[in-house]
Amino acid sequence: MVDLVDVVQTLTTPHPLDRYLELIRPTLTARRMRAEVTHVRRSTPGSVTLTLRPTRQWRGHAAGQYVQIGVVIDGIRHLRCYSPVNPESRRDRHIQLTVKAHTGGLVSEHLYRHAAPGLVVDLEPAAGTFRLPAARPDRILLISGGSGITPVLSMLRTLADEGYREPVTFLHYAKSPVLVPHRAELDAIAQAHPNIRIELRYPGRRAADDLEPVTIRSCTEVSGGGYFDYDELERVAPWFADAQTFVCGPNALMDAVRKVFEAEQLADRLHTEEFTLTTVPVDDSDVHGAVSFTASGVRAANSGASLLDQAEAAGLQPEYGCRMGICFSCTAVRRSGCTRDLRTGETGSDPDQPIQLCVSAPVGDVEIDI
Ligand SMILES: Cc1cc2nc3c(=O)[nH]c(=O)nc-3n(C[C@H](O)[C@H](O)[C@H](O)COP(=O)(O)OP(=O)(O)OC[C@H]3O[C@@H](n4cnc5c(N)ncnc54)[C@H](O)[C@@H]3O)c2cc1C
Ligand code: FES
């Protein structure tokens, strides 16, 4: 059957139908998915929680997945990934994002300072394999650190909403209690669900540093203890070997958790998500020659960095989202030359192949079509 939108699209050529509709209202779209910010909360220092109402194309997310949003700053659209913190079962078609402001970070600082109800952003469908399995495991261990709480919080809220009855432990690391987003709600979840154990850790912090008394009732909070290790795991989830474990956080936490699970031969029960890229060490013998950005006529000496970093250093502004090889926003064609995948160390040199600029570094001379 001919799609009515396709027919109208043909009539409105050369511009897509959405170009006309957005003149009426930015969220009135035929094809393009967008979302309007309806509430903004800045209750945790350095982060902002946005509630968004997506357009009718939104199909929801599975707990743990991320979305990409496009935010226009000074006339340029910037894509970034954020993991919804709301439970996946939420029926009122809203998305909640908690964004930590990074010093010098373009989009996160912008949202933290300027996001207000009425702001409209582009929205991509939810994606990612870091998600609660549809058949819920018998025991679930959730571990997070810092802003890595977001996908794991969606999992926790989903399990709480569903009335999941098996044991769940949520272990979260932060610098201090005031920096834990949604902390009061965590307490409420722990109070209402005896099977859910919530453990908050503030390593390197003294209890005497508390600016306000710790009022939380049902979560266990420990200041000044150590970082994640086997003993901690045994303490908070002695059944961890039978559980499925989901972890998201800074590299040091991820490394510590991986080390323990590998030593216990439980790596297949560990599911991870990172917000930043872990790369293989740069091979000095790769760092020679020049990178030619053919479409822009720009050429620069190969510095050994990722092609995305090198393009930006040369004054170009290629589109990007995650900077870690998961969203494909930065894909461009390698016309000639050899590149190394910074995640795996593998090289590729077939001409005219699409590559992801953020996770590819040149090995000598390379031509990229941007
Ligand atoms: C799957 C996924 C889910 C995520 N979920 C969340 C979430 O729920 N909440 C959240 O707060 N964040 C989340 N993030 C991180 C988020 O996508 C952004 O990376 C973060 O908000 C920073 O974006 P920014 O525009 O502020 O910073 P950017 O301007 O992109 O900069 C990020 C960092 O890189 C540095 N940098 C920028 N440009 C360069 C360059 N050219 N060369 C070298 N370094 C540079 C900056 O100094 C800064 O420290 C997620 C990321 C992924 C991949
Ligand atoms: S920016 Fe996401 S894959 Fe490169």
Q: Can you give a write-up of this model?
A:
The structure is a single chain. The protein has 370 residues and is of the alpha/beta class. The longest helix is centred in the middle third of the chain and has 14 residues, at 149-162. It has eight helices and 18 strands. It starts with a helix and ends with a strand. The strands form three sheets. Strands 4-3-6-1-2-5 form a six-stranded antiparallel beta sheet. It has a six-stranded parallel beta sheet with strand order 10-9-8-7-11-12, sandwiched between helices. Strands 13, 14, 15, 16, 17 and 18 form a six-stranded mixed beta sheet that branches. The relative contact order is 0.10. The protein has three domains: 33-123, Elongation Factor Tu (Ef-tu), domain 3, CATH 2.40.30; 140-273, Nucleotide-binding domain of ferredoxin-NADP reductase (FNR) module (Rossmann fold); 284-368, Ubiquitin-like (UB roll) (Roll), CATH 3.10.20. The site of flavin-adenine dinucleotide (FAD) has 23 residues, from strand 4, strand 5, helix 3 and helix 8.
Fold blueprint:
Blueprint: H1 4-11, H2 17-24, E1 34-41, E2 47-54, E3 67-73, E4 76-82, E5 95-100, H3 106-114, E6 120-123, E7 140-145, H4 149-162, E8 168-173, H5 183-192, E9 196-202, E10 220-223, H6 230-236, E11 244-248, H7 251-263, E12 270-273, E13 290-293, E14 298-301, H8 307-313, E15 331-341, E16 347-348, E17 353-356, E18 360-368
Parallel strand pairs: 7-8, 7-11, 8-9, 9-10, 11-12, 13-18
Antiparallel strand pairs: 1-2, 1-6, 2-5, 3-4, 3-6, 13-14, 15-16, 15-17, 15-18
The structure holds flavin-adenine dinucleotide and FE2/S2 (inorganic) cluster.
FE2/S2 (inorganic) cluster (FES) is lined by residues 320-323, 325-330, 356, 358.
